[in-house]
Design a protein that fits this description.
Blueprint (H helix, E strand, L loop, with lengths): L16 E5 L6 E2 L2 E2 L3 H15 L3 E5 L19 H8 L3 E4 L5 H9 L5 E4 L6 H4 L3 H8 L4 E4 L10 H5 L6 E3 L1 H15 L5 E5 L8 H7 L5 E4 L1 H10 L14 H14 L2 E3 L3 E5 L10 E4 L8 E5 L1 H12 L3 E5 L12 H15 L4 E5 L1 H9 L8 E3 L3 H7 L5 H4 L4
Parallel strand pairs: 1-4, 1-7, 4-6, 5-6, 7-8, 9-10, 9-15, 10-11, 15-16, 16-17
Antiparallel strand pairs: 2-3, 12-13, 12-14
């Protein structure tokens, strides 16, 4: 990860216009925002710039309007939530460039905050059109990107503007990049990665990248079934991508060559039906799964062994649950391992970084999220980082 400028590198910004890319793609229900986590993440950056006397203009997308104005996808839908979190009045500006924005800047006083319309109402946004980016940049003095979750997109509001104006990482972006650097770029070894979820196909590139970066690769969720099948285990009617067993074997061979130990469960929780607390629930060795049973979680012996592995590690990267954690009792392995990781992080022996929607939900469910060293709310950007890809929005901030 290359070096990037932060807000600490800004001089006197009194009266300057700061264009700040934030993530306001918030969950809604009945016209109201149901979760303000993403606003809270960017609040320190917005308020710091405002307190230093800048006129702060927020850039954000909302939904997928595909280059068309759509009243149900106006970012003005998020205005009340933004004002509540910031504790400040925010001016909504129904354009993104041109005279209306220019006039609005004239009305704003130093330290005031404005919210520009949905960047995706214009086709130039997703095309990263140079003229469109120039139009946005014309009204700003400098650019701050505080939306890591949009950093994997090479759009005008993440890359185009950054290439035109002096550009800086906001506080949330800075925190995220430092955490990720500590986890995979320059980690303290040994490093463990927990990769779970339903399908190997969605995380192939992640697994291929990790085997050369970590010493322990812990595979859970439905993905583990595909790896077990590759090893000749009969997984009954479990979720399994049988067409990917050769790929799974290739990943395990690559891990062997790189000195990375792949950990698969040797005892599992099985049931004949996928339901809460089913009567057919039992724990067995992986070689004892009946043809009418499905594996729905990692067993207690394997979890205990995995906890012992984490105790020997200094760094942990986590993406995806160990089992079908949304349905009890198939949350047991995820909860137990998450609690172990949280305890080790709290005592300072482990740097733990987790990311992705399901992962955040699973760690919150386990009551372990608060003790993890860092939790990324980004989905796609976090996965692409785990794949070892350069993120365009981050690369554009490099000084």
């Amino acid at each position: 990860m290359s070096s990037f400028r932060t807000l600490d590198d800004l001089g006197d910004i009194t009266g300057k216009v700061a264009l700040v890319r934030v993530d306001l793609n918030l969950p809604m229900n009945g016209g109201s925002v149901t979760d303000t986590t993403r606003v809270q993440a960017s609040a320190p950056t917005i308020l710091e710039l405002a307190e230093k006397g800048a006129k702060v203009l927020l850039l954000a997308h909302f939904g997928r309007p595909k280059g068309q104005r759509n009243s149900t996808m106006s970012v003005s839908m998020t205005l009340d939530a933004v004002e509540d979190v910031l504790g400040r009045e925010v001016m909504f500006i129904p354009e993104i460039h041109g005279p209306v924005v220019e006039q609005s800047i004239g009305i704003l006083r130093n330290g005031d905050i404005g919210l520009l319309e949905n960047t995706r109402f214009w086709t130039g946004e997703e095309a990263n059109d140079t003229d469109f980016a120039k139009g946005i940049a014309a009204n700003g003095d400098f650019f701050v990107n505080d939306a890591f979750s949009a950093a994997h997109r090479a759009h005008a509001s993440t890359v185009g503007v950054a290439n035109i104006l002096p550009s800086y990482a906001g506080r949330a972006m800075e925190k995220e990049l430092k955490a990720l650097e500590a986890a995979l770029d320059k980690p303290e070894q040994p490093v463990a990665a927990v990769v779970g979820g339903a399908k190997v196909s969605s995380k192939l590139a992640v697994l291929e990248n990790l085997v050369s970066k970590v010493q322990h690769l812990i595979i859970g969720g439905g993905m583990a079934n595909t790896f077990l099948a590759a090893r000749g285990v009969d997984v009954g009617k479990s979720l399994c991508e049988h067409d990917l067993t050769a790929t799974a074997n290739a990943i395990m061979d690559a891990a062997d060559a790189a000195g990375c130990t792949v950990h698969l469960p040797y005892d599992v929780v099985v049931s004949q039906e996928f339901a809460a607390n089913p009567t057919s629930l039992r724990i067995c060795n992986v070689h004892e799964v009946a043809e009418n049973e499905m594996i729905l979680d990692v067993g207690p012996l394997a979890v205990e062994a995995l906890a012992d592995v984490l105790k020997t590690c200094r760094t942990l990267v986590w993406n995806g649950p160990m089992g079908a954690f949304e349905t009890e009792p198939f949350d047991a392995a995820t909860v137990a391992l998450a609690k172990t990781a949280a305890a080790l992080s709290a005592e300072g022996s482990l740097v733990s970084v987790a990311g992705g929607g399901d992962t955040v939900a699973a760690l919150n469910h386990a009551g372990a999220a608060d003790d993890f060293s860092y939790i990324s709310t980004a989905g796609g950007a976090f996965l692409e980082w785990m794949e070892g890809k350069e993120l365009p929005g981050v690369a554009a901030l490099s000084s």
